[in-house]
Fold:
Amino acid sequence: MYTDACRLASAVWRMMSAGEEVRSVVLTGYGGYECLKVKPWPIQALGAGDVRVAVAICGVNFSDLYTRQGMLRELQPPLVLGTECVGEVTAVGAAVAHIKVGDHVLCYKFTGGLYRDHVVVAASHCFVLPPGMSYEDSAALPANYLTAYFCVHDIGHMRAGQSIFISSCAGGVGWAATQLACSAGDVTIFGTCSPEKHDAVRENGVTHPLTYDGYEQELLKHSPDGVDIIIDNMASSAFTINQRLLKPLGRIVVIGANSMVTDSQKFGWWSFLRLWWSTKNVSARDLIMQNRVVAGLHLGLLMERQPNTIQSAMSHLFQLYEQGKIKPHIDSIWPFDKVVEAMRLLAERKNVGKVLLRVETADK
Amino acid sequence: MYTDACRLASAVWRMMSAGEEVRSVVLTGYGGYECLKVKPWPIQALGAGDVRVAVAICGVNFSDLYTRQGMLRELQPPLVLGTECVGEVTAVGAAVAHIKVGDHVLCYKFTGGLYRDHVVVAASHCFVLPPGMSYEDSAALPANYLTAYFCVHDIGHMRAGQSIFISSCAGGVGWAATQLACSAGDVTIFGTCSPEKHDAVRENGVTHPLTYDGYEQELLKHSPDGVDIIIDNMASSAFTINQRLLKPLGRIVVIGANSMVTDSQKFGWWSFLRLWWSTKNVSARDLIMQNRVVAGLHLGLLMERQPNTIQSAMSHLFQLYEQGKIKPHIDSIWPFDKVVEAMRLLAERKNVGKVLLRVETADK
Structure:
């Protein structure tokens, strides 16, 4: 049934479009992997504020899975998936001043559309790579490292001597947050993940790996006053427990999942979690009496409203990379045609580190 | 009736006490100014962790008024008023290492007890003054400048190029916050106060003085995206409006009044406001969707739980003072015996700047 719907939607879209087409990962309808097709798809014309990029590498994210499953209902298929890519600039619009043909650029667009041989993107969504930075490492930065950056350095304002608790420290954002916390100097890092990943996260800088069961008692045993910063990834309903692990003046940052933007009722566990979060409140009186700081972060919406803030954060990340203070961990790189296998690996959480797609075409 | 109650309470306390007495401002019962008596009152013996100080100057605060009115019910009269004083150390306990006899120290204790010729205070509540800092200026620092410091520099993390909105910018905390914001470099400062104080606050550094009516439209006219930091002094129910004046990643700090600690039902307007605040919640979803940071601050409770944090903030304030970046504004200095007149001035909001008491005794 899904397959039929996919075919129909795809045919309608093709009839409505005209002009140049490029190879793309097209989501032809909500559903399983059968709705993902690698095929030619229309590319928009270059606008005055746009940049055209010959794509080399794309980053695979959970948001691609959610989009495919229909959890982001404001995105209607058929559409091209992909929120991160990196490559070489082949054309720039008349109004673009700071990017030129031949530059290597990283692109981030939380509404997708970047899994293609060539992309046309607004210049505000592009970041010129520093010399010598590899495509592979840079493609791993936007979703994970920008999110972690705003948690640890901007809102968190982490300094040497402080402590942080990172939920899911073996995940993409958690991995990046661990490195960014270490970049502040001598810090104490608590993080939850499954026991078999404890060695890996310790290697990455987590000083106290914890398991999900009873982590709060374990943390308070080491640090009875609590910690200075907490990153809560909304993957559980532990928000209230986590707040109690904060020192006075401590700050907790809740990272918004894209799924919470929508009002889909389809997915059991997610739907429960979304409902829980939608009714979750913080009491102003508690904030005051506990000297507590509570923050929310949604990278995609932040980029829409404050592109300059994102640009300056990315510049800082590039500096930290050049200083050797951050280094993305790549799990695997898949040919573009193997996008289903790459997404499946992520969905089954079999990866440790970033999953990438490599675009290899004759015309570049 | 109040006077009778005061006399009785005072007599009972005197009968229970013994030993040395020093001249003190004693609150003999809840009520009007008639419950304030300047008279000899027992002083505690010097403990191992204590410091004894010959007091020179005391700072007068709203918390003294609230205590007198019975809004802080956990403080039971008879008691000695006063949360700030400064003077010369005359004795130190055996366990005190960093303070010596002859040092000039500033003392802060949010539960009171400092309006006296001599005080015995825990060393953790004392700050050794830098050479050359006057008693008058230093006595104006704790309540106002420490509170403003945590809002602007710690939680706010204010940097050059940013903007701040300070509610009641002509008040003690607002005045200090204006100077601390200016110390960050080139900043934009919005603040509300009555129109007749606009010239004074502009002189102090407020770039856009606003009136209380319709300030939000006026602010957004100058700064359509909102501001980076907001200091909300809980003096009104504008918390929800104020949050909408925040930029993405902007932070709002709500300063807790001591009155909210209590459950007194006696005072109409305060009682309403306390009720309003006690039910006030921040939605986790809003925090995320708006990329917003919401914080609460209660200086007294912070000092109880994290004295070292307060010590290091005060050191930074002393540095800023020596660099000429902050300078308390003194409204008037009253003899110790005129404490009623000094408190009345504050209660009627006739002061601009800090109101102080001077202790002048023959034995110093």
